[in-house]
Specification:
Elements: H1 2-13, H2 17-38, H3 48-60, H4 65-85, H5 128-143, H6 147-151, E1 158-159, E2 164-168, E3 174-178, H7 181-198, H8 216-228, H9 238-251, H10 256-263, H11 268-271, H12 279-289
Antiparallel strand pairs: 1-2, 2-3
Helix pairs in contact: 1-2, 5-7, 5-8, 5-9
């Protein structure tokens, strides 16, 4: 039944590979729990008491609250699927309430920490792999794309004449993202080096050191290594670059709806977190712009 559900997520719901893998892991974990603690081998016999018992067990392990919320979301989607298939008559998740998470501001790099991305000439003669790594970080920051989206970029998705890329995002939703002249130059410099790695094996923009299609862990490690000598920020990941892209746009006055489209968000609620501002900036704007404002110390 888990296999059928995973296929449903892939083919009908079109969830991302990352989410599908996480949901499968969550369901496998839940199944092991009910089998061990309640001697259950079929999901039809699960009730909300057993689900609550599992959640208590998870809390005792001091898991990150966001992980617990994801596991609850997984079970809600799973049992809704089982009810639709007629496997269960009542959805045991209807009595389970997800805890509210505190809204945390995403980690963001300072624009000065990313100034090194303007210095392609310094690494131009350092070989195909170094040039690839540099361009991966620059593309993340200048387009705000997700890791999976970057991995799946093909040569045909890059329109150098129009300076834009075509991205296939979550839910197979396509969007167009523009980029600047400097990034265009860097892509043109990279393409001959890419040919050295890939040859005619495939048409993906980025590859492994041996020329195969890039995979998630490789991209994550490349970003971490490239950022390590330029920032002291603890978290160094593709998503931090995406957060930085959106935050820097918002701080420079970009329209929130434009940021939403660039990020590929389906809801404006997901984008509004990037409109956050520091107290210092709010005070500065108030004292500078309001005609009757007193000086704020």
């Amino acid at each position: 039944m888990i296999g059928e559900f995973i296929n449903y997520l892939k083919c009908e719901k079109r969830f991302s590979t990352h989410t599908i893998l996480a949901y499968k892991s969550d369901l496998d974990q839940f199944y092991r729990f009910i089998k061990k603690d309640f001697n259950l081998e079929v999901f039809e016999e699960v009730n909300h008491f057993q689900i609550r018992s599992w959640l208590v067990n998870l809390n005792a392990q001091e898991l990150d609250p966001s992980s617990v919320v994801r596991k609850i979301s997984c079970l809600k989607t799973f049992f809704k699927f089982l009810k639709r298939k007629g496997v269960v008559l009542q959805n045991p998740m209807r009595k389970i309430v997800s805890p509210k998470l505190k809204r945390r501001l995403p980690p963001v790099l300072k624009s000065t920490e990313l100034n090194f991305l303007q210095n392609f000439e310094e690494i131009e003669n350092n070989g195909a792999i170094n040039i690839r790594n540099f361009l991966i970080v620059r593309l993340f920051y200048e387009t705000g794309i997700r890791r999976t989206e970057l991995m799946n970029l093909r040569l045909s998705d890059i329109d150098l004449s129009q300076q834009q890329i075509k991205v296939l995002g979550k839910g197979q939703k396509e969007r167009i993202i523009p980029f600047g002249k400097e990034l265009k130059k860097d892509i043109l410099r990279y393409l001959p080096k890419r040919s050295e790695l890939v040859g005619d094996r495939h048409d993906f923009l980025f590859s492994t050191n041996s020329g195969d299609k890039a995979y998630p862990k490789l991209i994550y490690n490349i970003v971490g290594a490239e950022l390590s000598s330029h920032t002291s920020t603890k978290k160094k990941s593709p998503h931090v670059l995406r957060h930085s892209f959106a935050t820097h746009l918002a701080e420079s006055g970009a329209d929130i709806y434009a940021i939403k489209e660039l990020l590929g968000h389906t809801s404006l609620n997901a984008t509004q977190i990037y409109t956050h501002n520091t107290v210092a900036k709010i005070k500065e704007a108030y004292s500078r712009c309001h005609p009757k404002a007193l000086k704020i110390k």
